[in-house]
TrEMBL record:
GO MF annotation, one: iron ion binding
InterPro entries for the chain: ATPase_NBD, Gcp-like_dom, KAE1/TsaD, TsaD
Subcellular location: Cytoplasm
Family the entry assigns: Belongs to the KAE1 / TsaD family.
Name of the protein this chain belongs to: tRNA N6-adenosine threonylcarbamoyltransferase
Enzyme class, broadest EC rank: transferase
């Protein structure tokens, strides 16, 4: 089954062609980072307009790169939420028009489901499995009992981990999006600062990162005020040490409590080199599936993979009407 998928939930305009929920034939991604950089974050209205300008080119690019004809496409899939509503609607309208004009069925896919299913590109899911989903908007532990049978175990009580990375980057004067840069600098720094480790003792499945972010803010503020020289790299390393420690330990505890054998780590922050290394190093008794870095951050291939499994249960709408929902979980 050949699926054309579309993802425009935030600041990446992406169209992909995937086959049978496994093979990625093409994955065209246009990032808007350069456009939003000068604002220090994604500006929703600017993002919608940029999607409009490039979406049709991405359709062409994905189809050409995959070397297929439009008539080969069996299903169209599109991210329906959560995300920025204006951005979602650009993708939904483009995908729906394409499907309608070519008489192809269409289904709307949850963005977070896409992040989880990106792991299926690396290896087969074995149920029940535990997923740590870490992105700019979400930090969740999920029990995946079977295809599309997902139970939310816990989430962040405040900031998402990617959001904490981006805010720490801003405190340090680094450009948006800060996560990848903090990760890079952490590798040349030393974790010499003692920051609080938010383990939330009696809440095995929940997270909290806003206290840690404030601790970084206070540390940097105090050092600047007292004119104490410091290396940005050391602050990054100290922050990353705590974040990865909390994520890995909580995932390990949850996996032991639930008795699962396989763990998926997904979402933009799963691209973090420190987190990837520590997961494999500290959880040798589990089979760990982490998508390739290119499939961790937002792109349409993950939507096409999830759509294949969703289609087995829900054959798509016949009326070409998909509702975008910014708050959908
Ligand atoms: O999944 P994603 O592309 O978009 C959302 O659905 O939110 O995740 C984006 C988030 C941003 O906060 C970005 O800073 C973070 O993932 N991120 C990273 C790394 N690469 C992306 N955070 C830490 N280390 C990285 N290498
Ligand atoms: Zn995402």
């Amino acid at each position: 089954m050949i699926i054309l998928s579309v993802e425009t939930s935030c600041d990446e305009t992406s169209v992909a062609i995937t086959r049978d929920g496994k093979d990625v034939l093409s994955n065209a991604v246009l990032s808007q980072i350069k456009i939003h950089e000068r604002f220090g974050g994604v500006v929703p209205e600017v993002a919608s307009r940029a999607h409009i300008e490039s979406i049709l080119y991405m359709f062409d690019e994905a189809i050409q790169q995959a070397n297929i004809q439009v008539s080969d496409i069996d299903l169209v899939a599109v991210t329906k939420g959560p995300g920025l509503i204006g951005s979602l609607l650009v993708g939904i309208n483009a995908a729906t028009s394409f499907a309608y004009a070519n008489k192809i069925p269409i289904i709307g896919v949850n963005h977070l489901l896409g992040h989880i299913y990106a792991a299926q590109i690396e290896g087969d899911m074995k149920f029940p499995l535990l997923t740590l989903l870490v992105s700019g908007g979400h930090t969740e532990l999920l029990l995946v009992k079977d295809h599309l049978e997902i139970e939310l175990l816990g989430t962040t009580l405040d900031d998402a981990v990617g959001e904490a990375y981006d805010k720490v980057a801003r405190i340090l004067g680094l450009p948006y999006p800060g996560g990848p840069l903090v990760d890079k600098l952490a590798h040349t720094g030393k974790a010499i600062y003692n920051l609080p480790k938010p383990f939330l003792k009696n809440e095995p499945y929940n997270f909290s990162f806003s206290g840690l972010k404030s601790a970084v803010l206070n540390l940097v503020h105090n050092m600047k005020q007292k004119e104490v020289p410091f290396l940005v790299e050391d602050v990054c390393a100290s922050f990353q040490e705590v974040v990865t420690e909390v994520l890995v330990e909580k995932t390990k505890n949850a996996a032991n409590l639930l008795g699962v054998k396989q763990i998926i780590v997904a979402g933009g922050v799963a691209a973090n080199k420190g987190l990837r290394f520590k997961m494999f190093e500290r959880l040798p008794d589990f089979e760990i599936l982490i998508p390739h870095i290119r499939y961790c951050t937002d792109q349409a291939a993950m939507i096409g993979i999830a759509a294949y499994y969703q289609y087995q249960k829900d054959k798509g709408t016949g009326d070409y009407f998909i509702k975008g929902d910014s708050s959908l979980n």
